[in-house]
């Protein structure tokens, strides 16, 4: 197992600044493009991260710590953020930063009481899930959406790169 709580926290602490550096001040074209069809744009991905901070990670950690296997997580609506899309990128990034800081403060406060990362609760789709799996997923979820954001942005220029397209793996 590679999971170490301090390493997960290192990554989780950096995501708001990473996104802020990447996205602040960009033209709307970068923020509103998507990968086609019903895919999300950059604004929607950041809004999804905010929704996760509010209703997913810390509430589920608390459920594992307080209710354990006697409790099934409520389903997470991965599309709930789509109904709240009036904010600009600076507002979204500020809200994400604030939510993440609050989440990490709560997590760090709980760390003193956590002596078993194998504690578990029931996921509505996966069944029994461990605390270390949830914490690992939180960190990898951030990386997934950072990757998604850069892929969305890269694909905006897919046709513009001409013959170099075959060398740019992000465009595949």
From TrEMBL:
- Could you confirm whether the keyword Coiled coil appears in this record? yes
Task: Using the record's annotation, list all stretches that form the DinB-like domain.
Answer: 12-149
Gene3D superfamilies in UniProt: dinb family like domain (1.20.120.450)
As recorded in UniProt, coiled-coil segments are 82-109
User: What Pfam families has UniProt attached to this entry?
Assistant: DinB_2 (PF12867)
Keywords on record: Coiled coil
Q: Does the keyword Lipid metabolism apply?
A: no
Name of the protein in its database record: DinB-like domain-containing protein
Q: Which organism is it from?
A: Fictibacillus arsenicus
